[in-house]
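WARN no homologs supplied; continuing
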Amino acid sequence: MGDDSATSAVSPKDRFLTVYGRKPVLEALADTGLEVDKVILADTVRGPGAAEIQRAAKAAGVPVQRASAHRVKVLAGNGKQDQGVLADVVAPRMRSLATALADRRPPARVLLLDGITTPANVGMILRTATAAGLDGVIVPRRGVAALDPMVVKASAGVAFRAPVLRCGSAREAAELLTEAGYSIYALGASAKSTVFDVELPQRTAFVLGGETDGVGEEVGELVTEWLRIPMPGDVESLNVSAAAAVLSFELVRRFR
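OK structure emitted
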């Protein structure tokens, strides 16, 4: 592992998944398989609701911090549904993409999410990729659905232990991958090669584009080759999470 400051400085955003709302926070505290770093409770939350959260946190040995309602809203980043409470849950396999690429054994095969804004799709992709044993799913902080309770729910809780790699944007990820010697593949309906017959080098990244616009132009400029999923039936395209499943388990078939 490199020990220079660029790779050793760890942002809290690369360590925790933040869940908000009374029920998700209570569920996280009750799950003995999860490590909750802290609970933050708005000073406007009083009475039985606050007492229930504080009891659950104490039973789990988790510290509770008080903050203004505005601060909780900013930290949750969700607008209106935080209910004045959030919890930072340790995601043991989550780290920055830069850190992963600087590792002595960088990830061999990763997915890169580009413009996927539906939380259900992000959650299902995280579940599928984790099940398939992929080395990483790059989830940029901009342009992709935030890793919030809706994503966690869609992943059936797998998001907490998924191999999530963080960076600023999909373009930034594509540049880092290119510099690190990865070949970048993207799914496109009109491509000549298919995911089943392309020869893959050792280090590969697969871009999954957004629900309406597909792979963005900024990332498309750095794509090594476009691939398609052959569909003999009369259907134009698959949902992005279904496409991710086809791709992930083709990689299982090849490299198991």
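The mean pLDDT is 91.
OK
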